[in-house]
Amino acid sequence: MSEPRILRWRLVLGAAADELDQRAGMSAEDLAADASLSWLYERGEELGERDIRDRQGGLGASTLSVPEWLTDIHRLFPKETVERMERDAVEKYGINEVVTNPEVLARIEPNETLLRAVLLTKHLMSPEVLALARTLVAKVVRKLLEKLARKVRATFHGTRSRTRSRIRVAKNFDAKATIKKNLRRYDRDTKTITIEEPLFVSRTRRQMDKWQIIILVDESGSMLGSVIHAAVTAACLWGLPGTKTHLCIFDTAVVDLTGRVTDPVEVLMKVQLGGGTDIGQAVAYAQGLVEVPRRTIVVLITDFFEGGLPGVLVSRVKALCDQGVTVLGLAALDDQANPSYDRDMAQRLVDVGAHVGAMTPGELVSFIADKVRA
Predict the structure, then answer these.
(1) Which tens digits make up the pLDDT trace of 58-85?
(2) N or C: which end of the chain has fewer CB within 10 A?
(3) CB-side exposure of 120: number of CA atoms within 13 Å?
(4) 3-class SS at 15?
(5) In the prediction, which pLDDT does 50 show?
(6) What is the model's pTM?
(7) Cβ count within 10 A of residue 143
(8) Per-residue pLDDT tens digits for 343-361
(9) Could you report the per-residue pLDDT of 203-228, keeping only the tens digit for each?
(10) 120 in a domain, yes or no?
């Protein structure tokens, strides 16, 4: 094993370190790690731009296939590094074989980056690979569902009524109110409070009026993260007491996926990313679904780059707002909520009564909960 500090620099510099003649002291695992990093990060035109020559003599980047590379990095690097390298392979270098090779799909660790890659390349897959890809999608979606479902349960479960109860059982005991009520009986010497009057509360929950939640999702390529999280969010909201959820995706046409909302995997496998965008048409479709305007939330998830007539979009959003519908425009719906959108169009929609912002799925759930409880 070479000296650790030199080894780290060797792995950072890659082929540029060959002239330092430090390879002689490297172990077989060191050389394998070096080759794996080079296979990914010293490829294509970038080699010429950085004046780095191709590897020679059997340890070069060209000797590794995708399955071999994947096997090596899982053996040689910690999990966090592996996830970063897999993400770079797909997103930075476009190595689609990471998600279209059945041998790779069978062993790869499911994560959201690979889910996005599957959705972008599923049209390239054979039936055999598509079946494996669906399994990967299901695993990632299940994790996202479990995470968001906890938030949904906590947010929509309601709060206990503060009505005093005569039913004196432990589960109804209001410790905070009891301590406050009996503070005057605090003994400084013994540092104890004598409880003369324990307080209890009713465990009944506040009931919510029936609300309609209509989620419209732009399926253009730039909104892929939003499509994923919208499908998961809709599945979590489906069937909640006091709510009726719709899920629609759109480009230049609108597809109502409400009938499949409980199966976000099926929803995502049906999505066809790319194409034009007619947001106004999607809003018009939502208008036709509205039952009670003042108890309806239309969630419009898009980058606001309208391919149709901008004036038509603005007028249709205004009509919804004038009826009392809550229109929420979301520029992003992934965990990072990094927005990239037409700010001028977004401002025009705000001017006619819509709310526009960037929210994570958890923040969207909280927004909806606040509205239905108001």
Answers:
(1) 333 445 777 778 778 878 888 788 878 8
(2) C
(3) 20
(4) helix
(5) 35
(6) 0.65
(7) 15
(8) 999 999 999 999 998 887 8
(9) 554 444 588 999 999 987 667 778 88
(10) yes
The 10s digit of each residue's pLDDT in 181-198 is 888 888 888 888 888 888
Both 246 and 172 in one domain: the answer is: no
Range of the domain at 172: 160-204
Report DSSP letters for 145-172, one per residue.
HHHHHHHHHHHHS--B---B-S---GGG
If one counts the domains in the chain, the total is 3
CA distance 315 to 323: 12
State residue 366's pLDDT score: 84
How many C-beta atoms lie closer than 10 Å to residue 148's C-beta?
21
Residue 103 structure tokens = 């041998």
Contact indicator for 14, 34 with CB cutoff of 8 Å = yes
Of 11 and 90, the structure prediction assigns the larger pLDDT to 90
Shared domain for 293 and 165, answered yes or no, is: no
3-state SS class at 57: coil
Instruction: Say yes or no to pLDDT of 298 above 90.
Output: yes
Q: How far apart are CA 298 and CA 282, in angstroms?
A: 11
Rounded to the nearest 10 degrees, the angle between the axes of helix 79-87 and helix 66-76 is 150
Q: Across-strand partners of 250? A: 218, 254
Q: How far apart are CA 33 and CA 74, in angstroms?
A: 10
104 and 39 in a common domain: yes
Give how far Cα 141 sits from Cα of 84, 110, 128, 264, Å. Answer: 20, 10, 20, 7
Structure token pair of residue 278: 């007619």
Q: Are 61 and 43 in contact (CB under 8 A)?
A: yes
Give the integer Cα–Cα distance in Å for 295 and 165.
32
Half-sphere exposure (Cβ direction) of 212: Cα atoms closer than 13 Å: 20
CB atoms within 10 A of CB 295: 20
Do 243 and 211 touch, CB atoms closer than 8 A? yes
Residue 108 amino acid letter? I
Tokens encoding 215: 């989620």
* Whole-angstrom distance, CA of residue 9 vs CA of residue 17: 8
Average pLDDT, rounded, for the chain? 79
Beta strands in the chain (DSSP E): 186-187, 192-193, 211-218, 243-250, 254-256, 296-301, 326-330, 355-357
Residue 144 placed within a domain: no
